[in-house]
Write a structure and sequence with these properties.
alpha/beta; 3-stranded mixed β-sheet; about 15% strand
């Protein structure tokens, strides 16, 4: 089974959030395809929100439908295996940092903004790469009269504009 972690949990797992202030209660993984449903069900039973593991360790696994956050269409091809060779049933994949950042642009909650700010402050994000990732996340969305016709795309583009303004020093906070 192949897992693609996203969200704050992935940024902590992969060592991108290093300030020590970032915490999470869950590790979100993309729910990809139907061939993994039975294995994902087993994982969620053992490590999901109501599991004994979650109660004991105060962290749980949660699946996120691949269609919910803006996920760039190329994420699987660009990901690299995390800790290759150490898993017997699972393969955990680390998405590129710009692809992970793109998944935070639609919701743009306070935690998402804090995560994006830290990634910017560490010099891990570049405007051009973010623009490419966002374009790959909304392949079927069109632009009419200079505006995306998909409200989620428009929202993510607005938020991306704020991130780029922060990167370029035109605003002092996200």
């Amino acid at each position: 089974m192949e897992l693609y972690p996203i969200g704050r949990g992935s940024l902590i797992l992969f060592g991108f959030l290093t300030s020590g202030r970032a915490t999470t209660k869950d590790l979100d993984v993309l729910q990809v395809g139907q061939h993994c449903d039975s294995l994902l069900t087993i994982l969620l039973e053992r490590f999901g929100v109501s599991s004994e593991y979650a109660r004991a360790n105060e962290i749980y696994l949660e699946s996120v439908n691949v269609g919910l956050p803006p996920v760039p269409s190329w994420y699987a091809n660009r990901s690299q295996e995390f800790l290759p060779g150490t898993w017997s049933v699972l393969r955990v994949w680390q998405m590129k940092i710009h692809d992970l950042a793109t998944t935070k642009l639609k919701r743009f909650s306070a935690k998402d903004r804090a995560d994006l700010r830290e990634l910017c402050d560490q010099g891990l994000l570049a405007p051009e790469a973010l623009l490419r990732s966002l374009a790959k996340a909304f392949l079927w969305s069109t632009v009419k009269d200079g505006e995306p016709n998909d409200p989620d795309h428009a929202k993510a583009e607005t938020h991306l504009g704020m991130v780029i303004a922060y990167l370029e020093g035109r605003i002092s906070d996200l």
